[in-house]
Amino acid sequence: MVVHAKIKTRIGQFSCQYTISPLILPIILYQPMAQPLLQPDKWISNYSDALYAYTLVRVNDSALAEDIVQETFLSAWKGKDSFKGDASEKSWLYTICKNKIIDYYRKKGRDIIQPIEGKDVSDGFFNEAEHWTTTDAPGDWGIDYQQAIESKEFYKILNGCKKKLQQLQQSVFVMKYLEDLDSEEICKALGISSSNYWVLIHRAKLQLRACLEKNWINL
Amino acid sequence: MRFLMISCKKAGFLLSKKEENKLTWLEKIQLKGHITICSFCRRFEEQTGWIILNAKHAHTHSEATLPEEVKTRLQNLLTD
Asked: How far apart are CA A86 and CA A90, in angstroms?
């Protein structure tokens, strides 16, 4: 007895009927068994430095970055049975690490009791009419803004400038631009209002830009 | 026409809002109008965009490495 599976499709006014022989069903239904490939014994040699560098530019503290990398590997080790293999081992580890970094910022956000009001640092950049003051107006950098830079010196200075940001500004900057979270997620994680968020992100940009102009362009 | 004019400070705020497509139609017109006439704010937009572009992959330019003793300790933990 031959059993035929009938599949009817209807596109617009046309309808047609396919007959599929059961012989080819196994081919259609066959899905290769996922072969999760994890090699925990090679994690340290393959990924530890890269994950450490990734974390360090995000938290700006070597001891803390060490802790986060360690926690990343330990969580991965504990959860290795849940690895489904739908992502590569590398991106799986980065995702765990990224979550640890966001967790850290979330915890830190709750601890910081920092008056957002008070002295408005961005006022320094603008005059009474809220236009750029002559000293703080963005200068001409004479570079191609579409092109990323390779200079080691630049990254050193960028890091230094990032460290100089106020804690909350730094958190907001990293979460927004390095972790690609949107403003709602960031506000929720840090427990700040959206109007605070816009102030913080704007000030972070103002300060970073001014710091780079001072220390890198006008070197 | 006056309601279309905004300050540089306001324009800066709107630039951040623009990144998330959160501008109202009025803000869009205000920002566009301001950026067209204000070369400083145009520079600000270009320069901050460039800083962010670089900051995103700063880790690939980092020479930082995990201290050896941490690696050894972790390696032992993971091979247990």
From this structure: 12
Q: Identify residue A123 by its one-letter amino acid code.
A: D
Cα separation, B35 vs A104, whole angstroms: 37
According to CATH, what is the number of the domain A121-217?
A: 1.10.10.10
Rounded to a whole number of angstroms, the distance from the CA of A113 to the nearest CA of chain B is 24
Q: What is the CATH number of domain A5-29+37-110?
A: 1.10.1740.10
pLDDT tens figures, B15-33 = 999 998 999 999 999 999 9
Query: pTM value?
Result: 0.79
Residue B12 CA to its chain's centroid (Å): 12
The domains of chain A are located at 5-29+37-110, 121-217
Asked if A158 and B54 come within 8 Å (Cβ–Cβ), the reply is: yes
Q: Are B70 and A70 in contact (CB under 8 A)?
A: yes
Prediction ipTM score? 0.89
Of B17, B57, B78, the CB nearest to A43: B78
**What Cα–Cα distance (Å) separates residue A167 from each residue in A65, A189, B65?**
16, 14, 24
Which of A157, A175, A173, A160 is closest to A206 using CA atoms? A173
For A160-187, what is each residue's pLDDT tens digit?
999 999 888 999 999 999 999 999 999 9
B21: contact with A, CB 8 A cutoff: no
